[in-house]
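> example.struct
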């Protein structure tokens, strides 16, 4: 059964995509990791799917892959496009394989040095909230900003993928033993509504946003799942 929140989000997404001509749609889920039912997540992904436009802010939409008739070939191509977001520094910097978070487009180690700590929020004496608030905060004396969201944290260590090749990344995100027990339909909901995923397109002054927007990323995920969720 649909919840009121999902119905509202889906209706908002669909109406904004039409009204704004496939411009960026921002959906924030302030409960990181919340799972939706399979039917809800599939329908939400479909409603957020851009139609007609082939590219949004440098990210190709599902419509750009319609010419690929073989489902598995189309799924592999769709995942490769999704990976342009997942491997972008705005995402991968918080998905390190080892050590603490990374910074910048060159993905250098976090300054000051900081470890993962318990639950990905930093060590006890220097947790993420020591510097990071609930929103991005611009510097007052220079260009740039301190990133923030609620909550601000690293992805689980099991979901560290910085530097992984496409095939390894694809198998990792599908593996329930590593992805927090998420089904493929849960992944659609996560990519479509999660607030930290959304941050990648609103990273604050001084950072290059990920390509596309959250609506297109969610739509690509839904199309990938529908095509069989094959890996490159």
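> example.seq
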């Amino acid at each position: 059964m649909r919840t009121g929140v999902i119905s509202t989000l889906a209706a908002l997404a669909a109406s904004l995509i039409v009204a704004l001509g496939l411009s960026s749609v921002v959906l924030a889920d302030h409960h990181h990791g919340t799972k939706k039912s399979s039917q809800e997540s599939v329908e939400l992904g479909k409603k957020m799917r851009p139609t007609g436009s082939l590219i949004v802010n440098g990210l190709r939409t599902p419509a750009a892959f319609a010419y690929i008739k073989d489902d598995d070939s189309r799924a592999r191509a769709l995942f490769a496009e999704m990976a342009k977001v997942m491997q972008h520094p705005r995402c991968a910097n918080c998905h390190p394989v080892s050590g603490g978070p990374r910074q910048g487009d060159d993905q250098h180690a976090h300054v000051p040095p900081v470890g993962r700590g318990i639950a990905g929020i930093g060590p006890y004496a220097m947790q993420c909230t020591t510097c990071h608030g609930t929103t991005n905060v611009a510097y007052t004396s220079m260009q740039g900003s301190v990133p923030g969201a609620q909550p601000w944290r690293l992805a689980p260590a099991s979901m560290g993928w910085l530097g992984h090749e496409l095939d390894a990344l694809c198998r990792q995100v599908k593996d329930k033993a590593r992805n927090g027990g998420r089904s493929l339909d849960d992944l659609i909901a996560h990519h479509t509504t999660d607030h930290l995923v959304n941050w990648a397109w609103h990273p604050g002054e001084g950072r290059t946003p990920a390509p596309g927007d959250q609506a297109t990323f969610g739509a690509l995920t839904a199309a990938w799942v529908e095509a069989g969720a094959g890996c490159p």
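> remarks
The longest strand covers residues 55-56.
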